[in-house]
Structure formats: C-alpha cells, structure tokens
Design brief:
With about 220 residues, the chain is of the alpha/beta class. It has one domain: Rossmann fold (3-Layer(aba) Sandwich). Helix content is about 30%, strand content about 15%. It has a 6-stranded mixed β-sheet, with helices on both faces. The protein starts with a strand and ends in a 16-residue tail after the last strand.
Length: about 220
C-alpha cells in the first residue's frame, strides 16, 4: 500500500492591528513575523533546517490571502503551484469583522445573545460537523493527488483542530484554549493506502510564535 502524508498547516501570524475576528474576510495579509514563519516552514520541509527533505509533490491552500501567502514559499521551494480548495476556508462566524469581548461591547448587545446559546454546535457559526466533513473531503483529495508522496494543505486553526478531534474519536466541542494548533504548525496525517495510520504534530516555527499567540487569529 502506498504511504502518503498530508500535512495540515495552519497559516502564519496575520497583520491585524485592530484585533478584529477576521474569519472569512479576505485581504488580511501575513505580518512580517507571519511571513518569516511561512519561510521557516518551507525551509524545514526542504531539509534546510537540518531535517530530512520531505517528499512534497502537492501544495493546496484555503483561498484566503493569509493561507495563500503561507503556502507560497513552500510551493516555490518544491517547484510547485499552489492549488486552491474552497473546502479549506475558515469557519463561518457571526462575529466576523467585530472585536469580540465584554470590554468592547460585543457581548453586551442583546442582538448578539441569540448566537451564543449553544457552544456544542456552535450557535455562533458553522457547525463543527460541517467543518469536519468539508475538511476530510479536502484531505482525501490531497491524499489522492500526492499518493505515495506528501502534500501540504494550508488551512485555519479551528477547521484543522476539529478535524483532528474527529479523526482520533474525540468530541468536537472543546475549550479553545486547549487547541494544539499553533501558528504555522503542522498536523501531519500519515496514511497507509487509505487508512490513517498515525497523526503527528510539530511546530517548525515555534520559536517565532510570541506569548499568547496559540489561539488568537484563526
């Protein structure tokens, strides 16, 4: 059976000086540090950081700017194009474009309260199961495209995390503070044929991730 690896890569840090929840809003670019994270991951996968060169033959990303910019140096390193897959996009969220918290007033507005009643679905955005379904379809497509080799799939924190939760048989609702999906991290799915054999997690740009950067952003 061919052994294939699909690396789920969360994009790098985003330039977001006003601190809005940018969600699916396009036009949010990587910060300078985010661009450095993307370059670091590219170097890591290419073997330039001391690890073995990975056998990457396919790079695909969410259509959002921050994901495309994270994928670009990896594709360049391996002489590939960046494919786009709409199924890798960030989760939809009612609070997109807003700063979210009590202090800024978002949680004090009664108009928002009806979106906060059910954390298990969640009621404020795209259902977790919907995210998992589309992400697994994208992963399957990437696995087929890279069969016997490796693919890099650039997406966003929440879709990556709930997909991992589903694959290991854990519940999908969770405490966001406990997500193991840092900026520019790799959640690597190892397949024997079509069977998932192992999941590994690594942070090639971990030293570039500042304090408190594990969860903010998406």
């Amino acid at each position: 059976m061919p052994q294939t690896t699909v690396h789920l890569l969360r994009h790098g840090e985003v330039h977001n000086p006003t601190g809005v929840l940018y969600g699916r809003l396009d036009g949010f670019h990587l910060s300078d540090r985010g661009a450095a994270m993307a370059e670091r991951v590219a170097r890591h996968l290419s073997g330039a950081e001391g690890a073995d060169r990975r056998d990457v033959v396919h790079v695909v990303a969410s259509p959002l700017t921050r994901a495309q910019e994270t994928a670009a140096p990896i594709a360049r390193e391996f002489g590939l194009d960046v494919d786009r897959d709409e199924r890798l996009i960030e989760a939809a969220n009612h609070f997109e474009g807003l700063t979210f918290g009590v202090g800024d007033g978002s949680l004090r507005r009664p108009a928002h309260w009806r979106y906060l009643w059910n954390p298990f679905r969640p009621s404020w955005g795209e259902p977790y199961r919907s995210q998992v379904a589309r992400m697994l379809a994208a992963v399957s497509a990437a696995r087929r495209a890279a069969e016997g080799h490796e693919a890099v799939v650039v997406s966003h924190q929440l879709p990556i995390w709930v997909t991992r939760q589903a694959l290991v048989g854990h519940r999908l609702w969770h405490d966001p503070r406990r997500r193991e999906c840092s900026l520019a991290s790799l959640t690597s799915l190892r397949f024997d044929g079509e069977r998932l054999a192992r999941i590994d997690y690594s942070e090639p740009a971990g030293d570039l991730v500042g304090a408190g950067k594990q969860v903010p952003g998406a």
